[in-house]
Design brief:
Layout lengths: L12 H30 L3 H30 L4 H34 L2 H29 L6
């Protein structure tokens, strides 16, 4: 137990992994917004501007939700199961929206600029965000919070 953790709460390694996952995905949201900005700068048309705005807004919304989950897990564990259920639908929709928007950005890069490496990395980022939400997150959540929170 560290000094920053409440005395009544013993953190299990799997909970640390869940926290790390949440923080890592917030980082991926930031990377998605930066990537969309790079594409927007490379291909300055309405589609790229719209995709950048969409990714920026979606990343902000999802980041706030994940930050809220981290806060709730630390400060109000009794409500965590309800917050996980409430936020689950939002985060899955937003994560898949970000993945689709990154794929659209990738297509713009391939068609307009022939920047193949950036296009591949952009679509890979989108696939990574989708897989993190669809595959990794459910298993880490079930492991960290067995029972009603799953």
């Amino acid at each position: 137990m560290t000094l920053s953790e409440p005395a009544h709460f013993e953190v299990k390694p799997v909970r640390r992994w869940w926290r790390t996952h949440q923080a890592a995905v917030i980082g991926l949201y930031f990377l998605a917004a930066v990537t969309a900005w790079i594409v927007r700068e490379s291909y300055d048309v309405n589609a790229a501007v719209t995709i950048f705005a969409l990714i920026g807004m979606a990343a902000t919304v999802a980041g706030v939700f994940r930050g809220h989950l981290l806060f709730t897990e630390r400060m109000n564990q009794r409500e965590l199961a309800a917050e996980l259920r409430r936020s689950g639908r939002v985060t899955i929709i937003v994560d898949l929206l970000i993945a689709a928007a990154l794929s659209a950005d990738s297509a713009l890069l391939l068609i307009a600029t022939h920047r193949n490496v950036l296009a591949v990395l952009t679509v890979a980022l989108g696939v990574g965000i989708a897989l993190a939400r669809l595959v990794v997150e459910p298993s880490t959540t079930r492991a960290a919070f067995p029972g009603p929170a799953s």
